[in-house]
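Q: What does the assembled structure look like for these inputs?
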Amino acid sequence: MRKQLLAGLLVVAFALAGCGGDPLAGGADTDPDVIAIGSGNFTESQLLAEVYALALRDAGVQVENPVAIGSREAYFPALQDGSVDLIPDYSGALLTYLDQEATAVEPDDVYTALQAALPPGLVLGERSEAENKDAVVVTRATADRLGLRTIADLAPYCPELTFGGGPEFQTRPDGIPGLARNYGCAFADYRSLDSGGVLTVAALGSDAVQAANLFTTDPALEQNDFMPLADPAENFSAQNVVPVLAERKAAPEVRAVLDRISAALSTEELLAMNVEAAGPDKPALRTVAADWLERKRITGGGA
Amino acid sequence: MTYLGWLFTGENWTGPDGILVRLAEHLGYTALTMLIAMAIALPLGAWIGHTGRGGVIVVGLANALRALPTLGLLVLLFLLVGLGLLGPLIALVIIAVPPLLAGTYAGVRNVDPAVVDAARGMGMRGPEVLWKVELPNALPLIVGGVRSATLQVISTATVAAYVGIGGLGRFIIDGLGQRDFGAMIGGSILVAALAVVADLVLGGLQRLIVSPGLQQRAGPKRPPLRLVRGGEASAA
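A:
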């Protein structure tokens, strides 16, 4: 009975996975002269894909308009089977996806381990400094009152504070157990809310929880004057933005453009782009990407 | 079968996050919601049914409330009143009121006019007619409304775990996030079992408080019913 159910679920899962890749159906390799760019189906990933596309096009490389494919479980297979050639990803999360036993946490270690774990036919561009990773976040008021800069500063106050985050953060190795192990921080209470979503932001904003799990490039940080605390003990593994591309499309001029983008991108820059994209006038992601590239003088010279 | 093991593991039942605590929370939310909802809906429904005024508007409005999507309502209230019991409680009351209101209104409204006439003929005044004749006769439908509202509240209180409160929904919502499918399945079974037990208890209560004269028409004659009838007769 359980096996049948499992089989049924698998069929559905495959059907859904198939749907995700539908616009790229065929699975055959893309045009050898054109780079097909994919991304995850969330704002930041789509934004990065637009950045790659505009910069490559500006450098004279033929690119197709980026396609938002879905979760990593959907877009990474598409990259492997040659449906797309280039995807922006995050080093730590991709490493865990490829190797569940991976233990690297420091940016360079994660990058090296990721290079080793990458399936044949795929290569990495240079990693950027920009990271979209888990963070313990407090309001600026709390940070000023308690004099907090890092999670270590927070540790003595943990028993007086309520923590808010997604249900999984409570049991994840780098969640509450990791904070206890690395910082000796045990919160008074845990509020199970949503992962980096509107509930967590609202609960932190109203002081219903005093510390929360959000992401370092979440526009809500800037909009609500929240402060991510530094993580000196490296509880959270590095999540540097890194381009993953098909080896057969990794011409030197393509790699040069991607590496220039990685060199120019920082967590603050990425956060600023996210804030702009989430702004009241909801600009097109392409506009946000183009503005940033021009500000950074990556495009504009030749165009 | 391994997933079912969660339900039969002793340590899952005890502790501050254990099944017993969650069960008590779930029952507490349900009881509180039902008390508030009944305090609102029963007098309102009885008054509307008795006077016949405003029935279309109030019952129509209450039914329109049923169409509100629960999750959206919960998140909206969370953003309005913040973390805590108040938001989910309001959402649950909004869900519980329509069946209570409809049951009470319909029950009082549909009492045989000849019975009401006879009561008035015996010299009863409006409130007396309502208390001694209309409400006792309406009880089967009122209790039916209470049973249906209770079931809805028990099931919906599960969703309320999404906005950070306790109850059995914690096992389902957290189980999903933590990929703990044993807890999800166990939590679901507990909610379903709780709903069935609550309905059985209310069904038993219905037999106790509804006039035997009304029950005879409604249900088949069985020996236990006679016992109930005897008890009711001696109490009356």
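Chain A touches chain B through 20 residues (CB under 8 Å).
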